[in-house]
Amino acid sequence: MVDCIKIDIMxxxxxxxxxxxxxSSGEAELHENEENxxxxxxxxxxxxxxxxxxxxxxCDQCGKRFAKSATLFTHIxxxxxxxxxxxCDQCGKRFAKSATLFTHIxxxxxxxxxxxCVQCGKRFAKSATLFTHTxxxxxxxxxxxCDQCGKRFARSDHLVTHQRIxxxxxxxHCLDCGSRFKTSGELKxHQRIxxxxxxxxCxxxxxxxxxxxxxxIHQRLHTGVRFxHCLDCGSSFKTSNVLKAHEQIxxxxxxxxCDQCGKIFARSDQLVTHQRIxxxxxxxHCLDCGSRFKTSKELKxHQRKxxxxxxxxCxxxxxxxxYLGNLVTHQRRHTG
Length: 336
Prior knowledge:
The chain has 336 residues and is mostly helical. It contains 14 helices and 20 strands.
């Protein structure tokens, strides 16, 4: 598979060499020998238009141009084939270039950030990231404008990525399933579905995630922060999905119907749980005694028999209970 990829890359590169300089295949071979001479290369460049002289090699998949054929070769290999021969021995993450692996180790596993912003003190692992941060955050300069909608950007590559919204272009494709994406970052995140990579770890527990957004949502379990508020009753929630489900209480909307009995539900997960009544499915099982349950909640309540957990405490005395029903029964003794 790798040999086929390499042959394909060399074929594309040969095409760029021929079409970019207007040479026949025989002339290209002769020209390749001539380029070994520094003086002849300089003379050749004098006869070329300036933009060809600066970046004569263009990628036929995304249009990006390069000054050297070797750089174009590396770009195609890294960006459009997905080949990643260099692996990190600490976390298993793979990279297309050894330099990128080195930067990853330096940035992720050593924590070294030698470049500091003189304006806000924020530190970075790479000088290029510091430069981008300064330009984007502290100057506010956005010299690159979209001719379709007028939106402006601090970097030219951000403009190129944005314009794909208008063109629908998706130059980055997954070699495993064929899905296509507008940016290499989107492809990278998608590929974690196939690799199982979970680079983002919670510093409160051992749980790991494939996407940083999922980690941020998870960490709210530890902090208790609730960003999403219901405008009808003021209830607050940790995720927008839970808020959306809650709002159906006020609207009365129940879009999910059971095809066995016709009962309708506000949430799809409620329908799935209900359907287990008809199928008899009990996917949750206790590792201590083997008992099986229809829902994770039923399993959680059952496991208190084995753990001795008693989360419900009486506010009149110090007695505690494993089940809410038992607490309610007990409290009647205090009320009479």
